[in-house]
Amino acid sequence: MLTRNQRIIKRLLDISISIVLLVIVIIPLILLLILATISTAKKGLFVQSRIGQYGRSFKLYKIRSLKNEDHKDLFAMKRSETRFGGWLRRTKLDEFPQLFNVMKGDMSLVGPRPDVKGYADCLKGKDRIILSLKPGITGPATLKYKNEDNLLLQQEHPNRYNDNVIWPDKVKINIEYLKNWSLQKDIGYMFASLVN
Fold it and tell me: What pTM was estimated for this model as a whole?
């Protein structure tokens, strides 16, 4: 677990960088939300319940990229993706609104990605230490699996591959991130996210 001082430093970094980024992206964000509303014929801001710190749920904000968000099947989800939405997801611009989640304190700039119910909330034993972290916009597991959708689409059984290969690997990566946390590493992950 992070010490009290480390949590304070991490939070101060989150707030200061989020304020700067929101000033820069607020007008493009509004434009992207308008374009998402037009392309999906639904409200451009997508809100979904995710599992956060200590296993508590919170409302995650994204720019809507799908015409229908109620897909359990990855192939059906990709068919529902608009051309504009596909571009948003590839460039990760759909995640701009999560800066508000960071400002609210639901998320951090760096940490494990927030999962839907059925993953992080089901962690057992020592793996539950991950829940002491706030979920992040980016992080080491996010960077490793930046093309996760494409990887899953190549599998005969995407859900099984995710549950048996990707998810356990993410858990290991996030435990290592927590055990070896440093401010310099967080800054490095943010920079890597910008250039990749």
Answer: 0.92
